[in-house]
Specification:
single chain, alpha/beta, TIM Barrel, 3-stranded antiparallel β-sheet, 17 helices, 12 strands, binds pyridoxal-5'-phosphate
């Protein structure tokens, strides 16, 4: 890089460096050949949808109606075995676990499953396995949420922001759910007086500037209640921003209807965090829902949970995050899975998450790089886990490690 070099010589160096850089993503590009993704698999998914629609005698309008999707959720092995090939043993195991932990899958989410792959990553997230039933470890409430709830529907772990749980219902019950204990047999919208109490709590606590509406799934509330909550929050002067947590962008994108988008566009600033875990879930239909929200002015983020056998692989996460950016969704967090009873088979080592972060920085857009966090015990907060880039420091300099693993001296 000496100033004495001619333009020609400099360009030669740049060309050599470009060749070297190309090689840095060879292994990823090779891996992509075997990573299934929703954009790529769409024709097969459409065939699955046709099969499922035929079974339910549903029209295209039915399929695109979220009330229809919700009403026709698959909740029994009797129906499931008509739509997916299941062995006798597997049926028994699903029923056994199903009698302990609730399950329900929207027809749309079911259509993402490859019927020929017994370990399909979407299937692992929605269809019970015997491992859940056999799990002896873990806690019902590892976060001690009951100890951080100053009023029934509120969870408060931070000074300036809190959660209001607006329902216990979801479009699909994740097998790795961290709030399994509150996902009972019945779908319950939080009663109006508990929501009023929560709003009162916000009104009385002026340091609270950020309200996160979730559940369950925040979008399982009806549009009128959502509009009412946002209206009420907008009238509280110290509330600066509202956020929703919803997985319907993944499991039931039909939920994002025009009316909901109109309500949101009238209540900015508003952010939505959703929960994509695998590139298979980022389909053209899901992206359409994300675009609608983006057009309404809503900021979209994604929270992934690292799940053994689903997405604990650096290339799967890189692909996921790059596909999310194509859907206008910004990767926000990757969570280390908590020790929730019935989910031990999904847990990874913290080191796997750090390796994944190591394989993002430098290799993909900074926009595709979320924060990897561990939840400190007993609700003490999200705690970032990072690969080390500062190697050592001395008088007037530090030693840093670059994304390509080169140790270099940096004058300080
Ligand atoms: C995760 C969480 C939030 C939001 O945290 P951010 O880091 O701001 O996204 C707020 N309250 C509780 C109780 C939480 O668990």
């Amino acid at each position: 890089m000496e100033p004495g070099k001619s333009i020609n010589e400099k360009q030669k160096i740049a060309l050599k460096r470009a060749e070297e850089l190309k090689g840095r993503v060879d292994d990823y590009r090779e891996a992509l050949k075997t990573i299934p993704a929703g954009f790529k698999r769409w024709p097969q998914i459409l065939e699955n949808q046709k099969r499922i629609k035929d079974y339910f005698k549903a029209s295209d309008d039915d399929w695109d109606n979220w009330r229809w999707q919700l009403k026709n959720r698959i909740t029994t092995t009797g129906v499931l075995k008509e739509l997916l090939p299941l062995g006798k043993k597997e049926i028994e195991e699903i029923d056994k676990t199903g009698s302990q932990y609730r399950w329900a899958v929207s027809p749309y989410y079911l259509s993402l499953i490859d019927p020929d792959d017994p370990d399909d990553p979407v299937k692992r997230q929605c269809i019970p396995t015997i491992e859940e039933h056999l799990d002896e470890g873990g806690y019902d409430d590892p976060m001690g949420e009951e100890y951080t709830s100053p009023t029934t529907a509120v969870t408060r772990r931070y000074a300036d922001r809190l959660i209001i749980k607006v329902t216990n219902q979801c479009a699909m019950y994740c097998r790795h759910c961290q709030r399994r204990r509150s996902i009972g047999e019945k779908d319950l919208a939080t009663p109006r007086e508990q929501l009023e109490e929560a709003l009162d709590y916000v009104r009385k606590n002026e340091e609270v500037r950020d309200i996160l509406l979730t559940g369950g799934d925040g979008f399982m509330q009806d549009n009128q209640t959502i509009a009412w909550l946002l209206d009420e929050l907008d009238q509280i002067e110290h509330v600066e921003i509202k956020r929703f947590g919803s997985r319907t962008l993944v499991t039931m994108p039909q939920r994002i209807d025009d009316e909901l988008c109109k309500i949101f566009s009238e209540h900015l600033p508003l952010y939505i965090n959703t929960h994509y875990n695998h590139p298979l879930e980022v389909t053209p239909r899901a992206r359409e829902a994300c675009f609608k929200l983006a057009r309404a002015g809503v900021g979209l983020g994604n929270q992934t949970v690292l799940l053994n056998g689903v997405n604990n692989d650096p290339f799967i996460i890189r692909k996921l995050n790059q596909d999310l950016l194509q859907a206008m969704v910004r990767p926000y967090y990757i969570f280390h899975a908590k020790a929730v009873k019935g989910t031990s088979h999904f847990r990874t080592k913290v080191e796997e998450g750090i390796e994944i972060m190591e394989n993002l920085r430098g290799y993909t857009s900074g926009l595709a790089i979320p924060t990897f966090v561990v939840n400190a015990p007993l609700g003490q907060g999200k705690t970032p886990m990072l690969p080390e880039y500062l190697v050592s420091s001395g008088k007037g300099y530090i030693m840093i490690r670059t994304w390509e693993n080169k140790i270099v001296r940096y004058e300080n």
